[in-house]
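Example 9 (inverse folding). The structure is encoded as follows.
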């Protein structure tokens, strides 16, 4: 594994509808953040997504990225949580 990676975990929850994944990945791509792994599940009308990204070459700060993702969440009417991997692991004791 490349030691220079700075991983950020993105979690998305909401009502399922077309365009959620496209909207999220557009924000990620525009910030020059690379998707390392993604898992998506639709259960009846509920949408859940977890994405692990490499933030090391991002063209913005983590705080700016979180703000961009929050705007995306508002536009898509979903909840989005963006956490540095270290914070995620500590909070969830992975």
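The amino acid assigned to each position is listed next.
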């Amino acid at each position: 594994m490349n030691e220079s990676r700075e991983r950020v975990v993105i979690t998305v929850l909401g009502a399922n509808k077309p365009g959620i994944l496209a909207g999220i990945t557009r924000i990620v791509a525009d910030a020059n953040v690379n998707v390392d792994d993604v898992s998506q599940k639709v259960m009846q009308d509920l949408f859940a997504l977890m994405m692990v990204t490499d933030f090391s070459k991002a063209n913005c700060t983590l705080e700016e990225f979180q703000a961009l993702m929050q705007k995306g969440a508002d536009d898509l009417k979903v909840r989005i949580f963006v956490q540095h991997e270290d914070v995620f692991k500590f909070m969830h004791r992975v």
